[in-house]
Amino acid sequence: MSDSPPSSSPVDADITNVAPFLFVAFLCSLAYSLGLWQHTHSATTSNLGHTIPCTTTTTANTTTTTTSSTNPRHSSAPLDFSSHHSADDDDDTSGTTSLDDTIKVYPPCDVKYSEYTPCEDAKRSLKFNRDRLIYRERHCPAKEELLKCRVPAPYGYKNPFKWPASRDLAWYANVPHKELTVEKAVQNWIRYEPEGDRFRFPGGGTMFPNGADAYIDDIGKLINLKDGSIRTAIDTGCGVASWGAYLLSRNILTVSFAPRDSHEAQVQFALERGVPALIGVLASIRLPYPSMAFDMAHCSRCLIPWGQHGGVYLMEVDRVLRPGGYWILSGPPIRWKKYWKGWQRTKEDLNAEQTSIESVASSLCWNKLVEQGDIAIWQKPINHLHCKANRKITQNPPFCPAQEPDTAWYTRMDSCLTPLPEVSGSQEVAGGKLAKWPQRMNEVAPRISRGTVEGVTAKVFQEDNELWKRRVSYYKTVNNQLGQTGRYRNLLDMNAYLGGFAAALVGDPVWVMNVVPVEAKVNTLGVIYERGLIGTYQNWCEAMSTYPRTYDLIHADSVFTLYKNRCEMEDILLEMDRILRPEGSVIFRDDVDVLVKVKRVIDGMKWDSQIVDHEDGPLKREKLLFAVKVYWTAPASPDQQGSS
Q1: How far is it, in rounded angstroms, from Cα 101 to Cα 118?
Q2: The three-state (H, E, C) secondary structure of 516-550, written as one string
Q3: What is the pLDDT of residues 560-580, one digit of tens each?
Q4: Can you tell which superkingdom this protein's organism belongs to (predicted)?
Q5: How far is 558 from 540, CA to CA, in rounded Å?
Q6: Which has the higher per-residue pLDDT, 206 or 615?
Q7: Model's pTM, two decimal places?
Q8: Would you say 558 and 501 are in contact if contact means Cβ atoms under 8 Å apart?
Q9: Which of 303, 393, 508, 576 has the fewest CB within 10 Å, making it most exposed?
Q10: For residue range 10-22, what is the model confidence (pLDDT) as tens digits?
């Protein structure tokens, strides 16, 4: 044998040349597999798709989500949705972070703005007519007057008591006003308990000092509050909303409203209790609700002059009442023969007032069902067949001319009767009969069945209902606090469409204020009410008629796409910051490019946030942005520093 090495065959040479390529291919496959495993594992453990998270630091009393010292928006920690500033925690962390120089930072507003309501500002209102309380209506700031800062919570702010304890208790630090504890002491509206530095709401009212529960029981002896036929209600001049608060246990959902007036913070107290409420007044423009919305309307010594101005205020109540709906009145002038001295009014004056109310109610074709004790109840007819026949004899008030009865955003009230939809028989309910609660929530709404909601059919309604069940289920996997009883109570849906988001949460101890923007292509708020849910109209280029720190969670579906080129994104987001509670959460749903811009703004507002894949996967352009407003408050005043 030869001692020389054997020569390489062509096959061996090919293997030698290919080997490096095979090794590189193997490494690429391994890297891809590891990346895929890591992505899947992350989605499984943190319930997030593609995220832009932030870091978490822990102090003695609280866990606060903050930014890191290098690049604060590119760590791997999930968002912390939990609340930490509860009954035993007085931490006043400012939430200050260092941000990239290219991000616009929004500073805190002065502490004097801690209860700022831009469209109900006391100083601005003085410029307007006091006749008919027009100066108490919405008067929003001009563009150049808009604040470009973050409204602070008062020093010592704590997370509200969890529902249902919040119905009866609120922290003094959150609403630092004791005026009503003195002014309404005899009427059991509210009491201050110094030992806990908190307020207690005994459930009383001007006309029900024995409590709202007993008062509602008295109403329940006169009309049926238990069979599900009454689901939505409106309380005009609500005080601290005890009537609405105690109706919740009877599955009746009430929109309570009152002006921002001398009864300081009454609506703010209602919201702090976890009860639906808005700032509002009956003056010259329609209430921001559709026609035929409420099963029941209520006034307990609400000081509204029902018989004056041609009865226009009762005509507005008639517009928003459903066919067959009830109007309940207690207080002056009802039972004036007993109370006239205590009310410090003459018999003649009170008798004239009741006569005028009876006359207006009769002209609206209402039927007075009963007057018993301190309560009187009228019922709206189920249709206008007989009413139209009577109009041939008297034209007072006339039927309103052809108009859109659901239009109610800066729409002037008219002294006319809103006609009900046509019927073919005297026993037919105009607009369609509603199912009883809870069946009505998932049944096709009469407005849809009648074909009066453009582009919405029974099939569209049912598909939307199922879609939101799936979406909310996904939300709960990302934000597990959404499924935790008591973490959230007051919710806002900024672009509600058919109310699917709220309907999917109806079994949870929360309530949702469903907003239909006035810029929406289709007015669907009437459908939302026919489902047994509540809501309001709103232009998001303006401030909402509510106090700072109203909502625990805000849902914003395609809001910024809708308002593109209408107003500044930062102004909408600063309004969201105003009405969101410290450590409250927001769920944005929009095009990914829009959400990237939103994220830059809320980074400047020092919120923590993460962009998350669509529930149908990463290939969808629509993404989700989950955000948390970091806890911070105004600094302590010298007096507060001394007391602490």
Answers
A1: 30
A2: EECCCCCCCHHHHHHCCCEEEEECCCCCCCCCCCC
A3: 999 999 999 999 999 999 999
A4: Eukaryota
A5: 12
A6: 615
A7: 0.86
A8: no
A9: 393
A10: 434 444 455 555 5
Question: CA 288 to CA 536: how far, in whole Å?
Answer: 6
Tokens 């003695």, located at residue: 60
Closest CA to 78 of 612, 615, 616, 639: 612
Predicted confidence (pLDDT) per residue in 576-590, tens digit: 999 999 999 999 999
Q: CA 452, CA 224: separation in Å to the nearest integer? A: 30
Euclidean distance between the first and the last CA atom of the chain, given in angstroms as a whole number? 101
Sheet holding 321-330, edge to edge: 277-279, 253-258, 232-236, 294-300, 321-330, 375-379, 367-372
**Hey, how many other C-beta atoms are within 10 angstroms of the C-beta on 338?**
11
The SS3 of residue 504 is helix
User: What is the residue whose two structure tokens read 């930014």?
Assistant: 67
Structure tokens that stand for 146 in this block = 């808009």
Give the residue among 47, 41, 44 at the shortest CA–CA distance from 476.
47
Look up residue 70 and give its DSSP letter: S
Collapsing DSSP states into helix, strand and coil, what is residue 492? strand
d(CA 252, CA 532): 9
HSE-CB for 172 with a 13 A CA cutoff: 14
β pairing state of 367-372 and 375-379: antiparallel
| Residue where the block lists tokens 């891809």 | 32
How many C-beta atoms lie closer than 10 Å to residue 186's C-beta?
9
**What average pLDDT does this structure show over 441-452?**
97
Read off the pLDDT of each residue in 105-120 and give the average, rounded to a whole number: 97
Q: Which of 399, 377, 380, 403 is nearest to 390 (CA)?
A: 399
Listed residue (496, 540, 531) closest to 516, CA to CA: 496
239 Rama class: left (phi>0) / alpha (psi -120 to 50) / beta: left
> Looking at residue 558, what DSSP letter applies?
S
Distance, in Å, from the CA atom of 464 to the CA atom of 470, rounded to the nearest integer, reads 10
How far from the centroid of its chain's Cα atoms is residue 519's Cα? 18
